[in-house]
Amino acid sequence: MQVIRDYYDIAILPPREVSEYCIKKSRVLHERFGSQFVLGRAENIPHITLLHAAFARERLDALKRRLKDLAKKQKLFKARFAGFLNYPHVGYVTIKIEPRNLFLPLHKKVIKITRDLVNRRFSYRDIWDYSELSDKQKLYVEKYTSPSVMEFYNAHSTLGRLKAYDRMSEVEEKMRIDEMEFQ
What pLDDT, on the 0 to 100 scale, is given for residue 122? Predict the structure, then answer.
């Protein structure tokens, strides 16, 4: 997985059985379709992304405090796998997680409590393929640091990234995502 200095996923770590399932599916994806990375227990750990953003290292302590406070206030809710949510233009294979109406408010809270901590000098344009973004998504990169926010946000867990993007439909045909509910 590509590591970008000072760029972070703010994410939820799922329960152990969900993590193990994602790791297993990631291995299958790698073996059958040549994924560029494999999820594991120590590196590339399974997670549910809430926001991608860059933060200066001197702001990480404040970020951690705010996220801890938010986590303490957040009530648990049930979530479930809802099949694939793939991004063929960049090769990412992900599992869609629902219900969106419960993840979206949490996503918006994360944006709200982190906005003043985000590193605005970071070159976000360098990591997003602008040729694939709508005009609104381009504005969101400037405003929120990511095109995958607000109405474009979908809770997901990434399994891998294909080297051959044209194999995405084959992945969807030959791999199955089991129904799984978790909290």
Answer: 83
